[in-house]
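Example record

The entry below shows one chain as it appears in the dataset: sequence first, then C-alpha cells.
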Amino acid sequence: MFEKIHKLNDTKFRALTGLKKKNFLELTVVFSACCQAIDEEYRAAFLEATGRKLNGGGSPIFKTPTEKLFFVLYYLKTYPTFENLGFIFGCSNKTAHENLYKFIPILEHALKELNVLPKRNFDTVDEFIEYIKDNEDLLIDATERIHHRKSDYEAQKELYNGKKKTHTVKNTIISNTSQNVLYVGETVLGAKHDFKMLKDEFPSHINWFKNFNVWIDLGYIGFKNEFVCNLLKIPYKKPYRTKNNPDPKLTPEQKEYNKSVSKVRVLVENAICGIKRYYILNYRFRNKSELLRDKSIFLAAGLWNFSKDFFIG
C-alpha cells in the first residue's frame, strides 16, 4: 500500500486524502516535525517518570510520517469501518483504532503550526474584531451531520431533529467571501435551533458584529433584534397565507433582493461543501467518541483552509 503513495496522481490523492499531491507533501513536512517533537516530549516525560530511557519496541505498522499522515487523512476522507481500515493497511482493527487516535492530535498540531485552523471561541469582542479585522463581510450558517441513534431514550431525544426527522449534530460556521472558514462553533445536539446556537456562542448583549456586514439565511430571523451590525443582509420571508391574503407572494423587488443576497450567501454553503468533502462529515457518524465527533469538523475546516492556501494570522 505505502509504496504506491508517491506514484499517485493529483486526482487519486484528492480522492483518498482530500488534498492535492503538492499540498499533501507540504503538510507532510510540518507533520513530520510535529511527530518528532511529540515523540521527543514523550520520551523525556518517560525518562523523568521512570528513570530509564524508552526502548525501541517492536516494528511499527506506520514507519514514516508520510504513512501516518496518509493513514489519518484516508480515514477522514473515506470514513471506513475499522475492520475495513485494518484490512487495507495490513493491521488489526484494534491497531487501526489505536493509531488513528494517536495520529489525530499530531495532525491538529501540524495544522495549528500552519495557522490554518479556524477559531472555536472568543473571550472578548476585541479579540473577535482583531481576528476578523481583514474581512468586511461575515457569512453565517449552520451545518448539520447525521448521527447514530443512541439507545438511551433521553440521550437520543436531544439528538433528534424534528425538521430533518433524524438524529443529528450541528455546528455554527462563519466564513468570508473567499470561502475561508474563520470560525467553527462547538458541536451541539441536533434538537437545538441554529439561532439559539449563535446566541449561546456570541451573547447578544455584546456588540460582536458592529463593524461587519452580516449575511444570514431565514434560520436567523430575529438577528436584528438581538445584535448590532454595520449592515444586515437577510432574505425576505414569504408572507403567511391568511383569509385576507389567500395567495401570498413576494414582490418583484423582494425577489430580486433575495437573489442578490443568495449570490453572496451561497459562498458559505460552498465553504461547508468544501469541509464536507471529508466523508466522516457526510456519512452517519458511527463512532462513540464525542471528541472525534467534534474534532472531525474542526480538522476538516483546517484542511479546507490549507488546501486554499489560507493562512490565519
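Notes for this example: The first strand starts at residue 137 and ends at 146. The longest helix spans residues 21-50.
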